[in-house]
Description:
With 110 residues, the protein is α+β, with helices and mostly antiparallel strands. It has two helices and four strands. It is 25% helix and 20% strand. Strands 1-2-3-4 form a four-stranded mixed sheet, covered by helices on one side. A hairpin with a 3-residue loop joins strand 3 (87-93) and strand 4 (97-102).
Amino acid sequence: IGHPPSNNSLRAHCAYDVEFPVKPYLERNKDIVDACNVFFGLPNKTQQIGGTWYTINYFRQVVSLEFGLNPPRPPRVGMIILPNGDVGHIVVEGKTRAKLNVVNGNKSLN
């Protein structure tokens, strides 16, 4: 499944079984989050800036809003792998928000 970005110079130009319309990065990233039940974020920096972190935080927001829906949506799972090898997972905390927990290393990214 392909969600190509509108910036043609940075596009992978892969062959897909299903290809969605070309969109700007942030719109495309929201489409990817909205379509998935399992999410992996692989940011290249630990500072929470840039498109990858925007998408990770959008996933957290969506999961938070879906918690408690009736009927419930199938559970979603989120994971990130940071450049230093730390691994985090996204969990629903209480009934209000999804929290990012780093399970290796010493940093807390909440």
